[in-house]
Amino acid sequence: AGYLARQARPQTSVTLSLDGLGADHDRLRGVPGGFASVMESAARLRRLRERYPQLAFGFQITLSAANLEHWPALSLFAHRHAGGLSPVFSPAVDGGLVAANSLRVDLRRLGDQSTSALSQLLDAAPLRVAEDLVTRRFLGTLPGYVRSGEAPWPCAGGYASLTIEPDGRVRRCDSLDEVLGDSADVGDDLAALLRDPAVIAAFVEHPDCRRCWTPCQAYPTMLLRPFVSAARWGILP
């Protein structure tokens, strides 16, 4: 019984942003000493993991035009230094600025070069644990997304996941601006917040949103998709 109780505890996962190794990370992020801070955080998480086995950590890598040639090294580093969590890869397609030096990061400007690099990254991705299947499935969708700029399936953000800001504000996802409410107003009872008529009405505005495809929403969408399909086929109620 004690073993089952321990296994039933929810896993807490922490991801650390890693866009380059050493000085490259600092340059891309525009933060001197940023890479050293990432590695210090990883060391602290590793020590905490020894005390709390349900804690897992890994690295989230932004795949951009500014670090394309370093993707294989970043992937290898992330796999070797993680604590129980596969690397998370996030494509840069908005063309926004990473740092004050105005680096152009949008993968779409590289055309076939970026889609070829994405395919190579997928080919090199390991398949060791079940979680790696999700990583590989996501990587497999990225060439098409980069070419079209449209997510392969309607997003499940708000249904399978929520974004909670540090100040308690709740949003459907981290890309849309609307605020659904404040978690403090409902005593952190998110189910009660989602039952609010105003919140339900807000979901009508984006019923089949495909404007972005980032891991925070893409992973839950991919995991939920078989159940959505089963419901449509009448297999599930």
Write up what this structure looks like.
It contains 9 helices and 6 strands, in the order αβααβαβααβββααα. It is α/β, with parallel strands linked by helices. A 3-stranded parallel sheet has the order 1-2-3. Helix 6 (130-148) crosses helix 9. The model is unreliable at 1-8, 95-102 and 229-237 (pLDDT under 50).
Poorly predicted ranges: 1-8, 95-102, 229-237
Contiguous helical run count? 9
Describe the sheet with the most strands: 3 strands, parallel
SSE order, one letter for each helix or strand: HEHHEHEHHEEEHHH
C-alpha Rg (nearest Å): 19 Å
Structural class by sheet pairing and helices: alpha/beta
Number of strands: 6
Query: How much β-strand is present in the residues?
Result: 5-15%
Gap from first CA to last CA:
33 Å
| Quaternary assembly | single chain
Strand order of the largest sheet: 1-2-3
Q: Which percent range fits the helix content?
A: 40-55%
**What gross morphology would you assign?**
globular
Task: Report mean pLDDT, rounded to a whole number.
Answer: 82
